């Protein structure tokens, strides 16, 4: 919970806004050089993010790290990481609500149909349990049932609060065996850190990145809409880079920037 709260304060969009407001206040009241510098940094950063697709440039190496899945002939299980559902909106309106990582949920349905014998596991509780009325797993259960994905092979892990616990609790629940093929579904930017965590726990998975945000051609870089959208792109990309560094320092991944294994 502490890490989530700290990121809310330290994410780039918040820092740029705070720098602009504080700089304007200091400049107006004291005409200080510090105020002028803060205002320049804050407004300059906001203008830069609006004019240039900085977020997409920073995200592209993350999204290119693992290619889209080439479906193998056999899959024993699929692990879908949480983060694609909105628990508060679901509780408020009584309907499963998704966010911009929704491809994680639809990819699970596709794979379930492609591999009818595979176990499908959703892992996700709540990143901030004190503020959540329902878990991500409960939202996933409702959504998949409405889409026809239910039954004894569909499992839910409702206690994890972050990616490390996603991997740890799911491994303890399904006990993957040597020789089994498990597919890992998460957003493309999140895949390097996720694969590193699963490897650190001794669980080799087949990456299936979805929800790509950064285009491969300049025309897509420049066509991403509003300042708000571009700041969101920047926040998301830098959050993942920060996560890679933090998890490496904590020993939760074996490499700073995990890469595909040869032949797999």
From TrEMBL:
Keywords: Membrane, Transmembrane, Transmembrane helix. Coiled coil: none annotated. This is YdcF family protein. The chain crosses the membrane at residues 38-60. InterPro entries: Cell_Envelope_Assoc, DUF218, Rossmann-like_a/b/a_fold. It comes from the Bacteria. Residues 76-243 form the DUF218 domain.
């Amino acid at each position: 919970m502490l890490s989530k709260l700290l990121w809310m304060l330290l994410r780039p969009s918040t820092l740029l806004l705070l720098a602009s407001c504080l700089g304007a206040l200091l400049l107006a009241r004291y005409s200080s050089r510090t105020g002028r510098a803060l205002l320049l940094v804050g407004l300059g950063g906001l203008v830069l993010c609006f004019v240039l697709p900085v977020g997409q440039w920073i995200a592209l190496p993350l999204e290119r790290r693992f290619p889209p899945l080439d479906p193998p002939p056999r899959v024993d299980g699929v692990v879908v990481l949480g983060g694609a559902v909105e628990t508060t909106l679901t509780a408020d309106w009584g309907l499963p609500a998704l966010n911009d990582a929704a491809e994680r949920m639809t990819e699970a349905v596709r794979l379930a149909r492609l591999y009818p014998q595979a176990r499908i596991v959703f892992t996700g509780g709540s990143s901030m349990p004190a503020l959540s009325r329902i878990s991500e797993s409960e939202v996933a259960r409702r959504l998949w049932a409405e889409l026809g994905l239910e039954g004894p092979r569909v499992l839910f892990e409702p206690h994890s609060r972050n990616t490390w616990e996603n991997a740890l609790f799911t491994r303890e629940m399904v006990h993957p065996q040597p020789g089994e093929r498990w597919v890992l579904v998460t957003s493309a930017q999140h895949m390097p850190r996720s694969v590193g965590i699963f490897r650190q726990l001794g669980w080799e998975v087949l990456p299936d990145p979805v929800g790509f945000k950064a285009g491969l051609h300049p025309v897509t870089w420049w066509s991403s809409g509003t300042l708000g959208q571009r700041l969101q792109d920047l926040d998301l990309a830098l959050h993942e880079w920060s996560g890679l560094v933090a998890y490496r320092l904590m020993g939760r991944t074996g490499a700073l920037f995990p890469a595909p294994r040869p032949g797999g």
